[in-house]
Design brief:
By secondary structure, the chain is of the alpha/beta class. The chain has two domains: 9-179, Rossmann fold, CATH 3.40.50; 184-384, Dehydroquinate synthase-like - alpha domain (Dehydroquinate synthase-like, alpha domain), CATH 1.20.1090.10. 51% of the residues lie in helices and 10% in strands. The protein has helices spanning 19-27, 38-43, 47-55, 72-85, 96-108, 184-203, 209-231, 236-256, 260-272, 276-291, 296-305, 315-332, 349-356, 360-363, 372-384; strands at 9-12, 31-36, 59-63, 89-94, 134-138, 150-154, 159-163, 171-174. Helix 6 packs antiparallel against helix 7 (209-231), helix 10 runs antiparallel to helix 12 (315-332) and helix 13 packs across helix 15 (372-384). The longest helix has 23 residues, at 209-231. Residues 7-176 form the Alcohol dehydrogenase iron-type/glycerol dehydrogenase GldA domain.
Length: 389
């Protein structure tokens, strides 16, 4: 028996931000906390949101103490500020870090203790209360954070998560208009992040027919539009398809889970503070270069979704074509294709391997087992920029 979970309400499409007024009016929230990326405030991206709140005569305050690759110390600080404010609704606006922080804040305002008490690897407490309602508005096409119950936090040398159904949004508003001003590099990194979500969900050991259909649709939409969205950001159709692809990928991976790429990306973010999307991008081809023999049928379907020629080719060659295609896509959107580009040395590979092997929650979903030797080889290949097939 399979199950599928998503937020209660998802509003998608150009102009869907206007739905915020209805949410406020129907629910009569009087005290709102906005958690937003600081750059969005400077660029005026959150102005339409605050205008709606003002028109609804709703009291609000905005916290912009959001740092990429969210440090746990920052999360604790913002949680304390939120507890003093006593919000009735938390709105998260921005990329994954802002939305993840809003998740944590929305729940922990009504639970005791610090953020670290609830972490997956070392936490000792369980959430007792659902917290206040949460509404998430993504401004990138990539993380899928608006439709998941996972909050990722950076520790000293790796990452950990809080994951619980209480972190799931009550409302998600996904308006492509908010992505129109994204710079090229952020568009590229968030786009590859979304593509990774879709591909890993599709090959996950926990995949279902429903998550498969969503994942393949997301792969089609993202791969067909990413180059245009990166290099011609004013193309509204490409932006809209990327936003929809990211949303669909998020719904797929929330239910099927991600695996080896994310597991090995976490130490890159924790140790070297590489942005999450870039960490996924630089590892994506190398992980699939290793695991494709365990998911050949699905690699063929991925090839079709990527619009690669398959006629007259055997499954092995098709799978290898997929790996090459992923490598070239990362390259084409201007992102590094080897971890040495981030000043990672060969002697760092052992430390990365030791941290990566700890991500058992993610590694367990890989169609091919990734032991210590395999993980070290993947990092080594990614350091050298070498595909083995």
């Amino acid at each position: 028996m399979n199950s599928f979970v998503s937020p209660k309400h998802i509003y998608y499409g150009t102009g869907s931000l206007e739905k915020l007024a209805g949410v406020l009016g129907n629910s009569q929230y009087q005290r709102v906390l906005i958690v937003a990326d600081p750059m969005l405030k400077k660029l005026g991206v959150i102005d339409p949101i605050t205008e709606i709140l003002n028109e609804a005569h709703v009291e609000f305050t905005t916290i912009t103490n959001v740092i990429p690759e969210l440090p746990i110390e920052t999360a604790n600080q913002v949680v304390e500020e939120a507890r003093q404010y006593h919000p009735e609704l938390v709105i998260g606006v921005g990329g994954g870090s802002a939305i993840d922080l809003a998740k944590v804040v929305g729940v922990l305002v009504e639970n005791e203790g610090e953020v670290s008490d609830y972490l997956n690897l070392n936490g000792t407490k369980k959430l007792q209360h659902k917290g206040v309602p949460k509404l998430f508005i993504p401004t990138t096409s990539g993380t899928g954070a608006e439709v998941t119950d996972i909050a990722v936090l950076s520790l000293e040398d790796t990452k950990d998560v809080i994951t619980h159904e209480y972190l799931l949004a009550d409302y998600a508003i996904v308006d492509p208009v908010l992505t129109y001003t994204l710079p090229e590099k952020v568009t590229a990194a968030s786009g590859i992040d979304a593509l990774t979500h879709a591909i890993e969900a599709y090959t996950s050991t926990q995949a279902t027919p429903l998550t498969d259909s969503l994942a393949l649709d997301a792969i089609r939409k993202i791969s067909a539009n990413m180059r245009t969205a990166v290099w011609n950001g004013k193309d509204k159709q490409a932006r809209e398809q990327m936003t929809l692809g990211s949303l669909i990928a998020g719904m797929s991976f929330y239910n099927a889970g991600v695996a080896g790429v994310h597991a090995l990306a976490y130490p890159l973010g924790g140790l070297f503070k590489i942005p999450h999307g870039e960490s996924n991008a630089v590892l994506l081809p190398y992980v699939y270069d290793h695991i494709w023999p365990a998911c050949l049928d699905k690699m063929v379907k991925i090839a079709e979704a990527l619009d690669l020629p398959t006629q007259g080719k055997n499954q092995r060659h098709i799978a290898q074509d997929v790996v090459q295609s992923l490598f070239h896509l990362v390259e084409d959107v201007g992102l590094p294709t080897r971890i040495s580009a981030y000043d990672i040395k060969e002697e760092d590979i052992d430390t990365l391997t030791n941290n990566g092997i700890k991500q058992t929650r993610l590694l367990n979903r890989s169609p091919k087992k990734l032991n210590e030797e395999a993980i070290k080889q993947i990092y080594t290949n990614a350091h050298q920029g070498k595909l083995t097939h």
